[in-house]
Amino acid sequence: MAKSVSRSSLKSESLLGILDDVQIAIDSKILKVKVFTSICKPLNGAIPGSNQAHFLKLWTFPYKYKYGKEYKESSATAYFIKGLRGALRHQVMYHCKERGLEVCHTSDKETDRKGKSLLPNGFHLIGSCTESNECIVHAVFGSKRHTSKIRVSANPIANISQKTFQSKYKLQNVHIATEKRVALSYDGGAIQDFGERYFAGEFEFEIDVSKCSLAELGLLIESAMYMQKLGRGYNAGYAQLEVQSLTLVDRIMTRKPILGDNQEFKIEEQISETPLSQEFLNSIAEWTKYVKKSQESPK
Ligand SMILES: [Zn+2]
Questions:
Q1: How far away, in angstroms, is 221 Cα from ligand 1 center?
Q2: Closest to 208 (Cα-Cα) out of 156, 147, 268, 256
Q3: What is the gyration radius of the CA atoms in the chain, in angstroms?
Q4: Nearby residues for ligand 1 (ion, Cβ within 5 Å)
Q5: Where are the domains of the chain?
Q6: 174 C-alpha to center of ligand 1: Å?
Q7: Distance between CA atoms of 281 and 296, rounded to whole angstroms?
Q8: Measuring CA to CA, which residue among 182, 107, 175, 173 is closest to residue 137?
Q9: Model's pTM, two decimal places?
Q10: From the CB of residue 275, how many other CB atoms can be counted at a distance below 10 Å?
Q11: Could you list the pLDDT tens digit for every one of the 299 residues in the chain?
């Protein structure tokens, strides 16, 4: 027998007074990087000896689009762009080397098993600077036992041809192309085949720089400005990146429960952003000062 549900007379308005007092605002500083790529083939996996994949299939989601006066439903697949943080780090290392600063390399071994050097000139082993004089790369990116100050993220990408699409998920619409390839065939049949994915279009990623000093932020701004590659070389991934704009913002996020019809609380998120253009410039100035000081008295 179905139980009768007693309807509460609780109304949203009665909550508002309480919520104003307890509402928490989460404040963060975000560097947004807008990038265009005419061709990008982040590593797809399926490469012998590699466990890396920079282009990861996430999930298939429904969306709506306008068809005449009506709405139709369809679905698309979302992908995750991996490798953005690594690409940024690579650029940061390059910039520091160009400026004559000795910083952490990504390697924690001097040589490989065959005795081949893994540590190029002008770098020290990752994390080896923590006891004496921490370098700026370590201060920002950390190492195994030291947490990073920054967080790099991007909304997933998807290929949706309908311009009027609506989805409740945050994603970026780009063009995704799949090239089907047969790696090995026998007697006319494919034994091993795989698809390589490429994408093209505009996308955005962001770096949470809330914990960074001005000089560290300046280093990140300068490096992000010069990012050109995603993936490592032609075989392992290929991409041309054109950085279009950088924006530094102060982001304030608040959430509140809104009482729905069936007494469930829907969480409503509000985000407000204020541009920090002056701080953007100050950061570059601080980074330039930091470089000059380090060049005058090298460690
Ligand atoms: Zn270091």
A1: 19
A2: 147
A3: 24
A4: 104, 129, 135, 138
A5: 22-109+117-296
A6: 37
A7: 23
A8: 107
A9: 0.82
A10: 11
A11: 444 444 555 555 556 566 666 678 899 999 999 999 887 776 554 444 444 445 677 889 999 999 989 999 999 989 888 788 988 999 999 999 999 999 999 888 888 888 888 888 889 999 999 888 899 999 999 998 899 999 999 999 999 988 889 888 888 999 888 777 666 677 777 666 566 677 889 999 999 999 999 999 999 999 999 998 776 544 555 678 899 999 999 999 998 888 888 888 888 889 999 999 999 999 999 999 999 999 887 65
Paired tokens of 290: 């930091």
The CA 24 to ligand 1 mean position distance, Å, reads 36
Q: 226 CA to middle of ligand 1, Å?
A: 22
Please give the distance, rounded to the nearest whole angstrom, from the Cα atom of residue 34 to the centre of ligand 1: 29
